[in-house]
Amino acid sequence: MGDILNQLGQLFLQSVPTVIFVFLLLVILDWLFFRPLTRILMEREDATVGALARAREQAGAASDKAREYEEAFQAARQEVYRQREAERKAALREREATIGHARWEAELLRQEGQGALRREVEVVKQQLQATCRSLAQEITEVVLDIAPSAGKGGA
Q1: For residue 151, what are the contacts with CB-CB under 8 A and spacing of at least 6?
Q2: What is the pLDDT of residues 38-69, one digit of tens each?
Q3: Could you say which of 18, 40, 125, 141 would form a disulfide bridge with 146 (CB–CB 3.0 to 4.6 Å)?
Q4: CA angle at residue 133 from 129 to 134, to 5 degrees?
Q5: With the CA atoms of 123, 128, 130 and 136 taken in that order, what torsion angle do they form, in degrees rounded to the nearest 10?
Q6: How far is CA 12 from the centre of its chain?
Q7: Residues 112 and 105: beta-carbon distance below 8 Å
Q8: What is the distance between the alpha carbons of residues 6 and 14, in angstroms, rounded to a whole number?
Q9: Calpha distance 14→93 (Å, rounded)
Q10: pTM, two decimal places
């Protein structure tokens, strides 16, 4: 058993430089490779997370802007509707005024026409009465056999 322990001791002594070399290699690799790599990965993660946070902020700002634009658009649309309604009401009032004026003029023309018609009826009645009298005179003369020239010439 002493021989095995002696061999193990020699192996341990022979492995010490390898262990030291591996330990130095780990320290050098950590200092030259792993620390910069870890730092770069952390910066990359920070940049990615920061970019995502900025993107979320910008998306929120864009959403707010879109909402503001939509509200402004709705307000403008409502204003246009109000203007159209006011113009429509003004046009209806103007139309009603025009129709009222036309009715008034038509009523005046109707009254003037009725007055003229009454006057013409009176004139025609007078002419008809005069014609009736002369026809009655003629009929009376024909029925009674009165000479038309005798009555007129003897007076």
Answers
A1: 141
A2: 999 998 888 888 888 889 999 999 999 999 99
A3: 141
A4: 120
A5: -170
A6: 91
A7: no
A8: 12
A9: 114
A10: 0.43
